[in-house]
Amino acid sequence: MNCNKDKNIISGDDVKPVLQARSIFYKLFSDFFYDILEDNSLLDHLFASLNTLEQMLAMRCDDPVLEDAFQVIREELSNRNEIEHKLAREYTSSFLLGGYSVNLSASPYFSPTGTMYQEERSEVKNIYISSGLKLNTNKKIPEDHLALELYYMHYMANRDMSVIDDKSKLINSFRSQADFMENNVYPLVYAVTKASEKKRNTGFYMSLLIILKEFVKQDTETVNCLISDEEELCLD
User: What are the structural domain ranges in the chain?
Assistant: First the structure.
């Protein structure tokens, strides 16, 4: 794998589209990992966004595993007559069968007890509250669930659009997001991906995890680039 961590793809005119793309993709990933797929329009959205996402990640990472993951997603999406039922079965077997499946919450991976609803949940809950995020969900899942952590990133990217001309607020927001990605989102995505590999999971959701892991990794690099120079925001 040949990933160029130092390549800066951000220019002055690119900041707003980057913020928009971050918001869109984090929301898309959040929706897919939130529950069994019920909104079929998500499949259309993913299909329409796939080439853009692949091109964006390929600019800084040449990885055959990542290429294969995109190919699996395309093949799955090409069979729309069966995909809804297939994804429902795959999500259930991958994430909803207790000890037989992979947990999507952080506490079981990082708490000393290895159980749900531990300090990791309280930590992210306080972060959500301090940012002004109010979670309106009918599904009882803990705040440290992967889908909700991804939704928080979508929320923050959206909020950045309203302060794009306020350098101080934007920098503070980027710092908060970089910290959250490095300490919460990426470790959880990595843990879920590794657990899925140990379960020998394959198919749509395994491929989506591989893509998500690279997306979060690159997004962390991008945000750190944006805050590395407070005066220039990495802008030429």
Answer: 9-228
Residue 153 and residue 22 in contact, taking contact as beta carbons nearer than 8 Å = yes
pTM of this structure: 0.91
Read off φ and ψ for residue 36, nearest 5 degrees: -55, 135
Are the CB atoms for 163 and 132 separated by under 8 Å?
Answer: no
At how many degrees (to 10) do helices 83-95 and 64-78 cross?
130
Apex 201 CA angle, 197 and 206, nearest 5: 80
Rounded Cα gap, residues 12 and 84, in angstroms: 41
Phi, psi of 81 (to 5 degrees): -70, -30
Q: Which tens digit of pLDDT belongs to each residue from 50-107?
A: 999 999 999 999 999 999 999 999 999 998 888 999 999 999 999 999 888 999 999 9
Looking at CATH, the fold of the domain delimited by 9-228 is given as TorD-like (1.10.3480)
